[in-house]
Amino acid sequence: MAADALFRPFTHQSLTLKNRIVMAPMTRSFSPGGVPTPDVAAYYRRRAENDVGLILSEGTVVKRPSAKNDPNVPDFHGEQALAGWKRVIDEVHAAGGKMGPQLWHVGSARNPMSTWVAPPPVDAPSGLSSPGKKFTEPMTDEAIADTISAFGQAAADAKRLGFDVVEIHGAHGYLIDQFFWAGTNVRTDAFGGATLAERSRFAAEVVKSIRAAVGKDMAIILRLSQWKQQDFTVKLAQTPKEMESWLTPLVEAGTDILHCSQRRFWEPEFEGSELNFAGWAKKLTGKPTITVGSVGLSGEFTAAFRGESSKPASLDNLLRRLERDEFDLVAVGRALLADPQWARKVREDRHDELQDFHKEALARLA
Ligand SMILES: Cc1cc2nc3c(=O)[nH]c(=O)nc-3n(C[C@H](O)[C@H](O)[C@H](O)COP(=O)(O)O)c2cc1C
Asked: In the chain, pLDDT over 70 holds for what percent of residues?
């Protein structure tokens, strides 16, 4: 199938993209002391030079003592780190690309591949790292307020540096997702509650803080997932109605685009419909959505960390869904991590030049 659907331009309010391909946010840990190096800038520039419509940065952390779980994860605060990010966005713009940082706070999720320990306090809604597993003390009101304003400050800095969008990492069992999940949020105050709508309050406050910081024109993308790294089988929303109660306050708070993380984009979200998570999120909110998960590859990404390789796979199912506007944008992770020319090769129908993904790709900035 021709990949034309991927190369239609996209416009939403003041955001215009030349095509529908988004580089998925991928932690690379190549920023010693939290400062992105010239190599990091060149890595993103190569994707901009090769037809990626929108680049989302690796998770980059807001200013809280334990926002990251690896010292080489980039900061999005402090003069040196922000100067590093300025180089990144300037190089991406010079190559004709568009980009946003993914603003991140890991909460109580530790990095299984690192023994490094962040300075306290660790922020987690109820001090739990997974259901029933105490890790630290619950976040105080002051820590919650400080964290919300740290997201706002980072977004203000992103705008000042010239980034085109900001993405909030609200997925995969990290801090914001720890508020959504009943398994890690047992608070009885205004940031907790029996319903998903009530547990969305923290995320909504983060979105509002960012909206206040960037003004009405800069697009805010919110990344969400049903699944957690702590448990792939979790579904925050069991029904479309529950999903609507989750997403509506987040959209009302100022989210423009929902980035719906699945490990395999083709898996239906609810029984009785083929729609995936991004399909349902678009249908329920009317907002543009991004799909993601094993696009163009045979295996899913968490297996890659265990050493599994993947082969190039057909894009036909994805293209059919995109043609009928089930979702608007398509994020591509490992295929673009390994090969900066992936988007260009797809545009030029050079499918036989698409590469396998091997875990060795994680060890370098290609
Ligand atoms: C090395 C690596 C690092 C990742 N880091 C992040 C991250 O910082 N933030 C995030 O939201 N997702 C992260 N992800 C998940 C990807 O954004 C994406 O959702 C996932 O890889 C599925 O897409 P793929 O199948 O095209 O690789 C990471 C994935 C990989 C492979």
From this structure: 100
